[in-house]
Design brief:
The chain has a five-stranded mixed β-sheet. The protein has 103 residues and is α+β, with helices and mostly antiparallel strands. It has a single domain (2-102), classed as Trna Endonuclease, Chain: A, domain 1 (3-Layer(aba) Sandwich). It has one helix at 53-69, and strands at residues 6-14, 17-25, 28-37, 78-89, 92-102.
Length: 103
Amino acid sequence: MRQGWTCHECNYRSVGSELDLVASKGRTLAIVEVKARRTWSGLAADAATLLSPKKREALKRGARRLLAARPALQSFETVRFDLALVIHDPRGPRIEYHVGVIS
């Protein structure tokens, strides 16, 4: 991966949840939800609002199950939930990355 990140899982599935990407850099483990949109128009100013309460709980549940299944991932000081928005804009695709969208 770019910029020093190490990918641990892609499309990790457990009962009732899926984690799109699990990556680490330094002492941080990031659980990344990826959302695709056709255009920027109509997207919420606060990217975190794009994740429903049900989706947030599913991500947290999936993270707990992943950490239980992969004890080596428990050694990270920080575990955070990020959001990557892939925007299919008429001028070309772009990615907006939002850090720490779930507390």
